[in-house]
Specification:
Helix content: 55-70%
Number of helices: 12
Largest sheet: none
Radius of gyration: 16 Å
Order of helices and strands: HHHHHHHHHHHH
Distance between the termini: 38 Å
């Protein structure tokens, strides 16, 4: 269902380094909300999202939009829940409302790229994905988003160059260092 789902499938361990909504859904959609995290926290909203409980997660993220410190993360989470239920234009609106304060956050650019890609606005998605990759050149979701949009636009050679930079994310592998 978009770049976020692909990142989760291809690199779940790496995707976990992102804000939790960057991971794909887990568990039954819209099941009864059950979490260990207390209500009114980003952790609770993220946990609901990751369990596939999109309506309760959406409600939690909307409440968190009021907190200036959590506003960008809440907007990203809200956009992910909206996108998972096919409400892509609403996801774009949620992200657009925090654009000024989120411009230097790679996670926001990846979320924008994902939403724009989902509605077929590939040129705009490429701008956002490239911005995310520029901000965080060793972050797997930014690399995947950038490469995927390039592939969609038929720029396979450039996409391959971008994907090759994934080695920056894998430099902690002792075998590669010893080789």
């Amino acid at each position: 269902r978009g770049i976020g789902s692909i990142v989760k499938r291809l690199a779940p361990g790496i995707a976990a380094t992102a804000t939790a909504p960057h991971q794909g859904p887990q568990g039954p959609a819209e099941a009864a909300p059950t979490t260990k995290a207390p209500p009114g926290t980003l952790e609770r909203a993220d946990e609901l999202y990751m369990r596939g409980q999109y309506s309760p997660a959406r409600a939690e993220y909307r409440k968190l939009l009021e907190d200036a410190a959590l506003r960008v993360s809440a907007a990203i989470g809200l956009a992910r829940t909206l996108a998972m239920t096919g409400r892509y234009e609403e996801a774009l609106d949620a992200l657009g409302k925090v654009q000024a304060e989120a411009a230097k956050r790679a996670a926001w650019h990846v979320a924008m790229a994902d939403s724009l890609w989902s509605v077929g606005r590939y040129d705009k998605a490429l701008e956002r994905a490239a911005a995310a990759n520029d901000l965080e050149p060793a972050w797997a979701p930014a690399i995947f988003a950038h490469g995927m949009v390039l592939e969609t636009l038929g720029r396979k050679a450039k996409a391959a160059e971008v994907y090759k930079t994934m080695s920056r994310c894998l430099d902690t592998d002792a075998y590669r260092k010893d080789a």
